[in-house]
Each structure stands twice: as structure tokens, then as C-alpha cells.
What does this fold into?
Amino acid sequence: MSLYEGSVKKPIMTSLCFVAVVILGIFSYTKLPIDLYPDIETNMIMVMTAYPGASAADVENNVTRPLENALNAVSDLKHITSESKENMSLITLEFEYGEDIDVLTNDVRDKLDMVKSELPDDSENPIIFKFSSDMIPIVILSVQANESMPALYKILDDNVASPLARISGVGSVSISGAPEREIQVYVDPVKLEAYNLSIETIASVIGAENRNVPGGTFDVGSDTYSLRVQGEFNDASQMNDIVVGNYGGKSIYLRDVAVVHDSVEERAQETYNNGVQGAMIVIQKQSGANSVEISNEVMKALPRLQKNLPSDVKLGVIIDTSDNIRNTIDTLFETVLLALLFVSIVVFFFLGRWRATIIIVITIPISLVASFIYLAATGNSLNIISLSSLSIAIGMVVDDAIVVLENVTNHIERGSYPRQAAVHGTNEVGLSVVASTLTLIAVFFPLTLVSGMSGVLFKQLGWMVTIIMVISIVCALSLTPMLCSRLLKLQPKQSRVFKLLYGPIEKGLDAFDNGYARLLHWAVGHRTIVIVGCMSFFVLSLVLVRFVGNEFMPTQDNARIGVTVEMPIGTRTEISKDVAMRLYKQWMEQYPEIVMCNFTVGQASTDNVYASMSDNGSHIITYNISLTDPDKRKRTLSEICDLMRKDLAGYPEIKKSQVNLGGGMSVMGGETTIDYEIYGYSFAETDSVAAQLSALLREIKGVSEVRISRGDYQPEYQVDFDREKLALNGLNLTTAATYLRNRINGATASQFREEGEEYDIKVMYAPEYRTSIEDIENIMVYNAQGKGVRIKELGTVVERFSPPTIERKDRERINTVSAILSGAAMSDVVAEAQKKIDQMSIPSGISIQLSGSYEDQQDSFGDLFTLMYLIVILVFIVMAAQFESLTYPFIIMFSLPFAFSGVFLALWLSGNTLNVMSLIGAIMLIGIVVKNGIVLIDYISLNRERGMGIREAVVKGGHSRLRPVIMTTLTTILGMVPMAIGTGQGSEMWRPMGTAVIGGLTVSTILTLILIPVLYCVFASVGVKRRRRKHHERLAASNSNS
Amino acid sequence: MKSVFITFDQAHYAQILETLDKLSCRGYSYFEQMRGRGSKTGEPHYGSHAWPSMCSAIITMVDDAKVEPLLKRLRQMDEAAPQLGLRAFVWTIEQSV
It folds into this structure.
């Protein structure tokens, strides 16, 4: 018993099976987490090493380089990039996709262990981060405070950060802008020298005094007591009474040579939220955790946390990424529902019977809901990709059911009982339904094999659509016949109202059929004109390619802007702060769209993970701005960004500025950049090439901003020691340098403990003794004999400039020039830039390479084109197998070029660009457009087999198949319309895809309906003539023989 | 005793069985899948790509008196759905075991 026979005979079982699937699907749906994108495999590992007090060049030489050399041996490494900046070395290892990141992490850890001993003593242990989109902060909270400001760090750490960090899924919670407590021992160098003391001695004395020592146990009578010395300071002021040395028989107390400050760190970041000073709490999620869930939890916890805070400390939300996710997903849900509505209307319009419409439309929710089971089973989420797959599939899942229903209806009209008609009608079309669905699966299944970044997107799309199609075909072969046998009537009675309403539609459809038959009749008689006409249309459409720009990913409007402003290097924090405030006030006035504006200024401490990964310094101001939702404002994100760029240009004191669309926090859908990587060791040469290049790029139309990755040179003082003099004094360079470091950066003597927290006790020169070159020159260095020598006797202090950040890629120094585009196609800009670069004179040893979005785009486009060939071949194979012919699939394949014409035409008309999303649309078209051809050719050849002549078969076949073709095409097109015209948040992403499919399918269907029958005529008559000729030859041969 | 050989489009199967039951014609043999075409009108039933429908056949042995009512009902059935096709032929049974 076949599937359809069984289901017609057992309606209860069949319907309940589907009910079970729907219930399971709905159950899975409620369990599905929501996210923006499918889980992106991590392929990056970051190694962060702090080297406090070291300059960029020192970090490069002493930390980055040895680490890079060791890490380069890790297998499957694609790129190794590094940034060496003051205090910090950041190495990023990029691996090939698909490798097991845990294995690689272990590998990296082993290599780090090997090289650890080569690192400088003062550098901290390298920390390994598995970097992925998960590292992007999901929630940024603002904190406003007045009186509590000095103690803010501790307040926030205890009352906000720690509770938040306990929420499951939260990776790290960093506090910026609130300075940490530190106990400083400011030493007067003059007094030190007078008493013959040094910073090192003081530091070691403090360390020795501040201790608790267990003294063991002893017995007194019958009891055992433990003995302890509790020497730790209870209060910072106790340190004043420490004896640090003796001079002239008198004890020298710490208070005699130094001042103890129980204060906050000297250099700290300051944060302002909507103009009020406070702090910023950045929450990052753990790898694989769900952002929306975490952000919900965080939001829920906020009121509770607020209660425990002092009254002047106010928590607020700067950025909640889950807002964007929720909005985007909501928009997509609307899209899916609209598509469902449109498809239902089309089906009713063509069938004119509500029972038939229900039979067809019911397959949609079943197939879609069933796909949720897959998502839940594989641990995926509801995201842009999975939901747009639903939207794509809606128009296609009904096709099979339509074909089955149509044939069953035919049987009923010929007089069969519905039950019999359902079984036999389905039996007749079963095979061709499976075959036509196979062509679609041949398109979508290969998508699951794509690797790399685009693979992340397409894998899920491929699986989702494949699964939905498989379910839809099962549905069409079981549920549809069952419902047909139950719901369809032998002679449907039509009410008068219905006839009145539907009569004109039916007449219109009939007239349409007849008109098409006449057109086809004419076309078959004028084959050359039709073929030449179609070919020239295709060639003309190729001209359009030049006018359609291309980019990697559409830019997404997530209502966030990140701005980084750089003042001249070395600008004091107070001055930067002043500029930041002015800018803030100006923007708040000019852009009512701004909901929240937060800025941070100043140098971050080394233990702030989030801040270390981004640029910071006393001259750098970083803004986080969030806007109202895109549909609630007139200006788009990029318009506002462009205006802000203009505003920034009006401040002469600003050296450099960057306006990042989307806050620079999204992996995909951020703005398009073309990066030129300039490799070369010499700073001077690469800088001049970068400057030339950026000047050239700025001239190109459509480039809105050019950035040079290498920051401005930082003035610094370097001490050039004379090794001979060092040796004479019994010193070596390291000892001398450590002396310098302890006096300026400070020596951490010990930890002050209070209420379970530890704070550093730092011993250093008082601030007034480290303000000039002389101060440094006068630093006294003691040798092993205790003899003091001044720095100026050991070497010279000179002022030099060095870049604040030294970037390297693949172990070579690199300087990147990036052009940000707005309103221009990437391909055009690249071509023009290349022309200009060719004219540049580039010094030897320096090379320029293209990367950035352009490289990604080239990679992905390359992958997609390979995929396209593969898919075309697969589709051809499926069709050839179905028709058992090579000619028919060949004819049908002629509908493909026009699909691409349509794609270009639609993209050009709608002003969209050719990007990964529209290319996916084009790939999907391969499967969709050949379906029309299959239906037509199948019926025409059936007519031929029934004994009709070629022309009659073609015209009659076209006449009879026009409605099914138009109907299935319209369901697909209208299913895509909500995607193509959507305006909600995130719609920029799928708009190009919707537009591409609509354009391609429309143009290709119109031309397919005319060209394919004509081509069939051509090929068939060639076949007939060949057979005739052979027959004549045989006749002639037999005649001559006889 | 007469034998009635009925060839029909598969869709008629349920109706014909019902008719036989009503006329209490108990014995019959049923050929489920058959191919064929009519002598004058009607679509061929080949189960092929061009002519996908199939016919079935039933041969039943009935008393002479039941032949006429049976044929009458079969004729009605055929006239109700002429496009499906239904034919019946009657032989005389000379001997049986």
C-alpha cells in the first residue's frame, strides 16, 4: 500500500500524525532561544599579555615578537595579527574554519608555556581568549553618581558587577570609568637621598611589615593553642609609623620620607552618561550563551540591584543588543505572516474554492512548524537566517500540494469519487512532484556544504529549506490526498453570491489563458524573432551589471553609533573631556534621534578586559550613542553618521575621528570597508605610503572616510644608557631600568587588605618629583656596593617619537589604510583606487595588499559561484533523470540566464546592490525557475505522446499549464514581497534577497512561458527531421537493394 | 449461469463492488492493474506518462436473471461518468466444477 493510499484509507491516523508533528513543533518553538545569527564557530584565539609601563616598541620587541614566533608553529593557522601598544600586547590568531577550537587552544597554551620564560619579568602571564562574536558586549549599563564617585568602583563591584556575573551565561562584567582604590606612598627623593634610602628598600620594608605569620601551635596545660602574628595593616595610616631605616642612630619612619595616600589610581578612565559623570558596566556573554535570555535576566535584576545602591548612584542602559535582536525577529515574524496571507489569497484567487484553498494552505503551517523541531533538536535558535528560510519556503511548499490537488480535481471532474480520485490522482503525479522538489533540494542541500563565514549563514538556510521541502512533499503525498478525499465534492454547488463575485475573476483568467494561447501560437510561427529578441534582451541586461554596484553584506541599521575621537597625542584628560562635553551638547541639540549618549575618556587600567581590547588613552574619547528605532525616525543611520562626520570636521583641535555605523560591534552588517594593508618594517616609509594612499582614496567619489590604523606618534623620553659607564659602576641595564620604572611607574610593595578585598600599595616618587627631564636625570641608582649613581652619569635622556600601537600581521609590521564607503559600489572604488595605486611610487621592501570587506566579498563570491556551478549541474542531473532525456533539461536550462537578467534589472531599479544576500537569492532562483520549465515541457511532451503534432502540443500544453505555472510563481513571488519591501529593523539584510528573487522569477517566468515552448518546437522539429531523413535513407537503401 | 466481464477505470471499483453486493452476486475475480483502451471512444488506460490512468477488471458469475439488472446499473454508472470508461461483456457458462 502506497503512502497516499494508506493515508486516504486511514484519515484519523494521518491527521493525528500531523497534529502530533504540529504539537511537537509548537513545543519546540517555545523552547527555541532567539538570536540574531546562527551560532558562529569561533576561529580566533586572542593572547593578551600585559607589560605595565612598557612602550609600544618595548612591548613589540620583548613580548609580541617572542610570542608570535612561538605561536606561529600552531597548526592550521591562517593569519597571526598583533597589536603592541603601551602596557599591552594583543595577539590574534585566526584559524581555518572548521577546526576544533578547544584543541587549538590547548596547542596555543602549550606554545605559550614554552616561551613564557623568555618574557620579561614584569610582564604578566599571557591570557588566552577564545574570540568570537560572543565577545561583543551584549549589554552596556550606565551608572550616574555624585557623592559616591570616589568609592564607585567598590560599590559597583560588590553590588552590581558580582551579582550580574553570577547570572548564568554572563562571561565577564567589566567596570569602566570608576577608578579603583589604590594606596600610594609618595616618596620625596631628596629626603631619600639624605637618609641613604631607596624606593626598593621602602617597598621591601612595607612588604615585610604588612604580613600575617602563623607561628605554629603549642600546648598550655591540657590545651593546644596556635600562635600567630597579625601584622597586616588595618588602616593605611598605620604605614606612617613603619621604620624604614636608621640614620645617625635614629629610626627613620615612613612619614619622614613619604606621604601615604589612601586614594584611587592616578590614571583612570572617566565616563559620562548623558553628560553626568559615572561609570560604564560592560557585560559580555559566554561563548554559546543566548544574548536575549541574558539581557532579559540582566534587565530583571536591575531594579533589585538599584535598591542596594546609595541614593545618588543611578543605573541605566546604554546599549541592549537584545533590543535589536528582538525587533529584527519581530519584523521577520510579520514578514512570514504577511507571506502566508499573500499566498493564501493567490491560491484562493486561482482555485476559486475555499475548501481547495484550505487543503493547500494547511501544508504551510505544518511544514514550517515542523522545521522548528529540527531547530530545537540541533540546538539552533530562531534567527535571521532560520526565519527568512521560512519566508522563502512559504511560497514553495504549496507547489506540490497544488499539483496534487489539481490532478485530483481533474479526476473528480471526470466523474471519479473523491476517495478514488485522491488515490489515483496522487499516484499519477507523485513521481513528478518528487522530481520537481528534488530540483529544489538540489539547490538548497549544497548550501549546507559551504564552509567559512558565509557557510555559517547558508548552512542553516540550506538545512531549513531542505527539511521544509521534504516535509511539504510528505504532506502533499499524504495529507493533501486525504483532505481531498474528505473535503472535495463531486459536483460542487456554487452559491449565487459566490458566482457574482468570482465570475468576473474566472472570466478574466479564461481570457488570460486564451490570450496566452494566441501569443504562443504567434510565437511558434515566428521562432527566429522570439529567439533573437530574447537573446538580445539577455545581452542588454548584462550591460546593467555595470550599473549595479556590489558589496559584501548590506549595512544594517541597528540604531547604534560608535564614535572615536582622537585629540593630539599627549593631550591631558581634562582638555579631552572639555571637547567631549562640547561635542555631546552639540549632538544632543542637533539630533533629537539620540536616546542615550555615553562617552569615555582617559587611560584604562590594564585589568579592564573590555577597555584593553579597544583604544584608550588620555587623548582618546569614545562615544556610544543609541538612537530611536529606525521606523520612528526620518534620517537613516548612515545619514546621521555622515552629518556627525561633518560636525567633527568643524573642530580644529580634533586630530582624528571615526564614526562607526552600528557601533562597530556587529560582525556582519556593519559598514563596508576596503582595507589596504601596507607591509614594511620602516615606520617612516610605511607612513608616507599610507599618507599618500589615504590622500588618493579621499579623492575618490563615494569614499566617506579614510582611516589609517597606525596612530599618531607619541612623544616619549628614552634613556640611552652607556653600557661602559654602567659596567664601571657595577650595574647592568636591567637593574638601572628597573630603578627608573619603580620610581615613575611605582613599585607594588604589598597588598592592603580590607573586608576581603585587596588593594595595591604602590611606592613611587611623589607626583611633583616626576614632571621634568631633570627629575629623571637625577634619579639615583644604587649598585651592589650600595653606591649611588645618578642616571645622568650613566646615560642621556632624549625625547623621541614612537607609534602608540605597532600592528603586525603574519609577523610583519603593517599599517592599514581603510576607506569607508557610503553610496558607492565597492567594485567601482576598488577599480579606481587600483588605477591610482599603480601610478604611485612605492619604496622597495613595501607591499600593498587589499583586504577587509573586499577580501571577504571576493572569498564569499568565489565560494558562491562555485556553488552555483555545482547546483546547475545537480539540477540538470535531476531533470535529465526525470525526463530520461538530455534535450529537455537543456531546453529548460534556458530559463536560467533570464533569471539573472531579472535579478540585475530588479537590483538596478530598486537601487540595491549585488551582495551575498542577493547572490543567495540568485542561487535559489536556479531551482525555482526550472520548475516552471519542467511543468511546461512535461505537459508538452505528454501531449506529443498522446499523438498531437508539435505545434498543437505546444500551444495546447501552454494553454493548459499556464495557470499552474502562474499560480506557483505568484505564490513564490508574493511570499517574497514582504521581504523585499519590509521597512522594519534589520530589513536591510534580506531586502536584496527578496528583490533579487522577485525580479529574477518575474522576468524568467514571462520569458520562459514564451521562449521554452519555442525552443521545444525548434528541437523537436530537428528531431523529427532527423528521423525523417533516416527513414528516407533506409527507404532508399532498401529500394536500391531490391 | 452467465459470466460478466467488467473492465472499468480504477475509480469505479468501490461502486461496482457495492452493486455486486446489492444484487447478491457473491462470486467474482478482481484484476487490480490492467491496461487497455476502448475500441471507439475513451482515453487509453496505460499507466504511462502520457496516459497515466489504469483500469481494473472484474469477472463475475451470476444467475441469468441477475444479468439484466446488473448491466442496467453498470450502464447508469458509465453514463454518469462517461470520461472514466466502463464496459461489460457477457458470456454463457457451459460447465463448471
Observations:
- The interface with chain A takes residues 9-15, 48-54, 80-84 of chain B (CB under 8 Å).
- Chain B has a mean pLDDT of 89.
